[in-house]
Amino acid sequence: MKHTRIGVLAFGVSVLLAVPAVSAPVTCTPHTDTFYLTGVQPDLDLVTTAPTSSTPTSIDSPSLSKTGGNPYKEIGTWYYSSGASVSGCVISSLSPLNVWLGLRNSDDQGTKFDLKAEVFLGAAATPFSIGQTFCVTGLTRNPDNAVKATVNFTPFPPLPVTGIPEVSVKISARIGAGATCTGHASATGVRLYYDAVSRPSEFDANLVPCNVNIPTPDGPTAEVFIPCGCVGPSTTATATSCGLTGEDR
Fold this sequence. Notes:
Largest sheet: 5 strands, antiparallel
């Protein structure tokens, strides 16, 4: 996956843009990082600073159609990398992704859409969490009437952060599927708004230190212990030695 510009923070740790990495990893403390969508193609970034602009940025999907199996088509992928090394952190959960949607063309008014978001860590080809929201309605060409859409991410096993955290989110759209999601079978495309005070498209990552019991997706009382040997830039620990077995991997 392509990685773009350097960010400002690394999971709550301030760094200077001129310095690609700090000399020693920063020990993790429990905290939540909010990642905001910003930038324009080809430099789409995630930053941890809330937008201040009154005018939103927008990005369009390709044309969408139920023809050919109604595949999801990528709107964009936003990247975050600060260059600062972190030691002893585990991503425990993600908050829902909030975005604002509209239409590329007013002729498509009445079209319903599905939205998908996939979150990756580092250069992994497989997302560690995926979310979808279905049959988003009421979209118009008027940016003042953009519709807020919320994507809930699937739970995932505790995810050790190794070295320099690099996070990316890929957002895609398709024509609304399902028997009850009727309407137009094609559209010029959907438009996503972000990077403004009124359109702060964002999601949170919740991080906790290792050497604690971390809840797992198996239920509110299910936990797994993640020893600190499982995280950090020089770890050689395996999933089994980290206590992650079976569906917890």
